[in-house]
């Protein structure tokens, strides 16, 4: 039984200590992922807020981030490795590149999706542009913004495994080593680890996401009738297809 | 970058590129077609039976969370196919695309206005014919939007299969990396992007043909 052998590999004490053990690789994997999402957020959140708030350049942004989605991960990683040299830097850059579009899309869609009436009311109350942005648009955009961060993390966790190919010690390492030397228990055991890490991390982020969304927005999302295409009906951006900018033409 | 013309000047290389491209098309589009059929069937089930909906939506979320590299490796272990068999990639991508499409299909079917289904019934449509001739066509715009996302993500994910020995354009990346040769990697990235773009255009044309009322400015 291949799964029994895989669990044998997973539970082997030899794999749980030393510099190339499972915990060390999980740590390195997470370090890359959080670093990349943080870096991408520093770029994408301000940009998304700007475009969403001013309404300028939305079409370019949606089109651009859709095009980035088509970029093959493995191609980007190997390309950057040969161009930049050094696996750490090239992997970090490619993870950031892949994390930017979902965060950008989430932030932009979040601000864009805020009820125009609410923004008008804020303007009528005499709020300045900055006040409207920080006190009205950002809190209301939180559900979609957090959803974007979660999608970015999902993408980055998967890609960090693939990136083991260029020699970083992430959790993709055991799987790739396993296929190279035809060690199937290690191959499948590595796959189980990657899948578990992704599922657990996504669940943790779902909980964190619920905590950072302001209570008022949460309440309206729960009790308000979800119009098709509203924030409430496309909380998670990946599984629900979003029409790309070109489709409106 | 100057060695790309040199790389492409070899006829053998060009033939190999064409073969990889066709492999790539096959590996990414077969799952797309299979999952459109699956998603329509499952979406209908979700639409008719609420409990199925809850189960399938949470199942889709879990499937979608599992990284492709792991899923490619877990499928042979679960169903007993050979580890290096391309069918693993096809099954994995079918799972992803179906997971992506089921919920929008179910939502689109639920969004068909009741006066339309009522008029169809009044005109003598039996349930199955009503579904195929009225409800499904009205769900096409939403389905098409999902299929477009699915095709782009499949085309980019097939490359990862190169790590576990399936063909396609991804082998250009692994080969290029091993030989420290940039030209095949650049050619591979460009071909992948062009392929994604061409397939997307075809899908848009197909959608426009299937939904003539949208262009005419009609509303359901």
Uncertain stretches of chain B: none
Mean pLDDT of chain B: 91
Number of strands of chain A: 0
Shape of chain B: elongated
What is the approximate shape of chain A?
Answer: elongated
Structural class of chain B: mainly alpha
Let me know the number of strands of chain B.
0
Low-confidence runs of chain A (pLDDT<50, min 5 residues)?
Answer: 222-249
CATH class wording of chain A: Mainly Alpha
Strand content of chain A: under 5%
What characterizes the major β-sheet of chain A? none
> What is the total domain count of chain B?
1
Instruction: Provide the gyration radius of chain B in Å.
Output: 21 Å
Q: Helical content of chain A, roughly?
A: over 70%
Please tag this protein with its features.
heterodimer; A: 249 residues; mainly alpha; MetI-like fold; 0% strand; disordered C terminus; B: 220 residues; elongated
Structural commentary:
The complex is a heterodimer of chains A (249) and B (220). Chain A has 10 helices and no strands. Chain A has a single domain (2-248), classed as Orthogonal Bundle (MetI-like fold). Chain A is mainly alpha-helical. The longest helix of chain A is centred in the middle third of the chain and has 34 residues, at 129-162. Chain A is elongated, with a radius of gyration of 21 Å. Helices cover 74% and strands 0% of the residues of chain A. Chain B is an all-alpha fold and 220 residues long. Chain B has a single domain (3-215), classed as MetI-like (MetI-like fold), CATH 1.10.3720.10. Chain B contains 10 helices and no strands. Chain B has helices at 4-9, 11-48, 50-65, 68-79, 87-110, 114-122, 127-157, 170-178, 182-210, 212-215. The radius of gyration of chain B is 21 Å and the shape is elongated. Chain B starts with a helix and ends in a 5-residue tail after the last helix. The model of chain B has no long low-confidence stretch (mean pLDDT 91). The interface between A and B is large, with 53 and 59 residues.
